[in-house]
User: Which sequence fits this backbone?
């Protein structure tokens, strides 16, 4: 064979080697490409529990998601505003975020509706799921959603039982709540039989806002006998500062304690609270988000449940002439003296 033949074969071999090298270089560059940056839309829908976001982000960092490197957060805050819920969620959907983290219950319902027909997963937290239609079941939530449930009915009954220990002579308890608020229903369904069994009358006071609640309380001020205590259940009205002040004034005038959620506004305060730890429930939410990012469909991830804890404001109770039983103090996770 001629020298030209061997030259041509050599040139072809060189070209082939160069081509293979180029493919390997490109492949190596792709393997070294920057990792995906996850975009998370966070709807913080109730100021009373807004620090849930802090717990969530801190735990995500521990799981390896570093803000500004491989994850970004669009945190939108509002305070029990249905129109704002819809607007914020529409923005998240339009932005095609990788995940929506949302709380509380009503915002979660809106998130579920807003993401229908999309592939955007939703992880809720601080949401009461009983009777809400948020999930199919705790084990198999279904659809594009999972999260951390708030044990609302259980907490309502626990609050009632603690109030009974603090005010053992009580014959009636005033229960204020946001009118038409869906999570109230399963709580009242759990409370009513407990109150009936204890021989205690629940004076239910639904209201749309603080002004309406104040008017309802003024009307009740003429009742004789009046309520022996004010019991706060899980809902947004009573923890609204203006509404709580209205309750505080009524309680001071009628010398009755307020309890359920631990809150102080100005000179008025409650004597105990049973709730979930906002930071911890935020931390519980993070592993669910991590599973979603690892490719597990949200609807197949079992719903987690938050643990409740008891806080007693011993000083406030003493100031109101309430004797706190030693057994209750022993049960308390936190005592404020």
Assistant:
């Amino acid at each position: 064979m001629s020298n030209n033949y061997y030259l041509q074969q050599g040139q072809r071999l060189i070209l082939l080697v160069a081509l293979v090298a180029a493919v390997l270089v490109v492949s190596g560059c792709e393997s070294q490409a920057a990792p995906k940056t996850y975009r998370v839309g966070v709807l913080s829908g109730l100021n009373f529990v807004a620090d849930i976001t802090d717990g969530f982000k801190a735990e995500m960092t521990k799981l390896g998601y570093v803000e500004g490197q491989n994850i970004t957060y669009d945190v939108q805050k509002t305070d029990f505003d249905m129109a704002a819920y819809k607007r914020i969620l529409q923005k998240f959907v339009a932005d095609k975020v990788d995940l929506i983290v949302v709380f509380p219950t009503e915002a979660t319902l809106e998130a579920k509706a807003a993401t229908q027909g999309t592939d955007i997963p939703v992880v809720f937290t601080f949401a009461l799921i009983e009777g809400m239609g948020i999930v199919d079941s705790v084990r198999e939530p279904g659809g594009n959603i999972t999260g951390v449930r708030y044990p609302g009915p259980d907490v309502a009954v626990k609050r009632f039982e603690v109030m009974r220990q603090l005010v053992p002579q009580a014959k009636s308890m005033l229960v204020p709540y946001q009118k038409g608020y869906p999570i109230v229903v399963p709580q009242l369904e759990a409370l009513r039989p407990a109150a009936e069994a204890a021989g205690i009358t629940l004076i239910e006071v639904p209201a749309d806002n603080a002004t309406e609640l104040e008017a309802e309380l003024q009307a009740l001020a003429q009742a004789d006998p009046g309520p022996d205590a004010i019991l706060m259940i899980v809902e947004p009205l009573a923890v609204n500062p203006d509404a709580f002040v209205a309750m505080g004034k009524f309680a001071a005038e009628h010398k009755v304690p307020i309890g359920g959620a631990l809150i102080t506004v100005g000179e008025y305060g409650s004597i105990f609270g049973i709730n979930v730890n906002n930071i911890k429930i935020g931390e519980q939410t993070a592993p669910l988000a991590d599973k979603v990012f690892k490719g597990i469909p949200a609807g197949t991830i079992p719903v987690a449940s938050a643990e409740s804890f008891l806080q007693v404001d011993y000083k406030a109770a003493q100031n109101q002439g309430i004797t706190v039983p030693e057994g209750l103090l022993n049960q308390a996770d936190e005592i404020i003296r």
In short: The chain has two domains: 38-150+278-306, 153-276+310-336. The domain at 153-276+310-336 is CATH 3.40.50.2300 (Rossmann fold). Residues 194 and 216 are 25 Å apart (CA to CA).
